[in-house]
Structure formats: C-alpha cells, structure tokens
Amino acid sequence: MTHYRQPRSLVTHRYFIATSTNGFSLFRDNNPIDDPLDTTNAEELVEGVENMQIRYGEDTNGDGVIDQYLNSDNVTDMQNVLAIRITLLLNTITERFDREPDTDTYALDPESSAYDPPEDYLRRATFTTIVKLRNINNRL
C-alpha cells in the first residue's frame, strides 16, 4: 500500500508597523508564498508600537559566536546569522497631559542613530529581545 501526503503550503509571516485607529501598531501579515503582496490577512498584534528595528547577529569567523549585529543589507552571508535582535519602541495610546512633554531621544540599537520622536505627551519605552535561530547551518 502506498501512502501519499498532501503537499503543504508554505506561509510567510511578515511583521510591520502601520497606522491603526490609535496611532501606530505592530501588524503580522500571513501571506502564502505565491502571493506575497496580499495584505488582506494582516492582523493587528500590539497597539502603540512606534518603531521596530531588526538586526541580524552574524558569526564572521566561524567560531559559533556572534561577532556583529547588522541590518539585512549589510550581512555578508545569511548562512552565518545565528540570532536576530528585535527592538520595539512602544508608546501609550493616550497622551498624558499631567506630565511634561516627551523630549527624550531613544537609542533603539547601538549600531544606528538615535530615534527622536515628535515632542508630544505620549510615554515611551524600548524593549529588546534576541531570538536564537535553531538548526542554522546544521548547528544546534
């Protein structure tokens, strides 16, 4: 007896910042690979995400340790990327007029210039995480 499996469809997940009803938000778009421009499946994940920076941790000398974090345009070999660092700048949905305007500058990552938001009454905070990529180059 022969068993046949149904072909699986490959789905990509694209994360992006866009305008929502309460300012900016983080969205995820679940796109079938055959139609990458289809945004009809985008869902709002988090309100108040004003900025997102993604950096790729590259091992440049083959020792299994990340030597530098770069944006995607500057990575020399994606096969050597061991982790991804994601930094989000979040803000409150409503302005806090009981406090001084936000005049701070936010360092979203050490490799780029600081982000200077508009002077307003929103409160802001940055959050950073590093996601290790499993099974890259057959490494565990």
Automatic annotation (TrEMBL):
It comes from the Bacteria. GO terms for biological process: type IV pilus assembly. It holds the Pfam family PilW. InterPro entries: PilW. This is Type IV pilus assembly protein PilW.
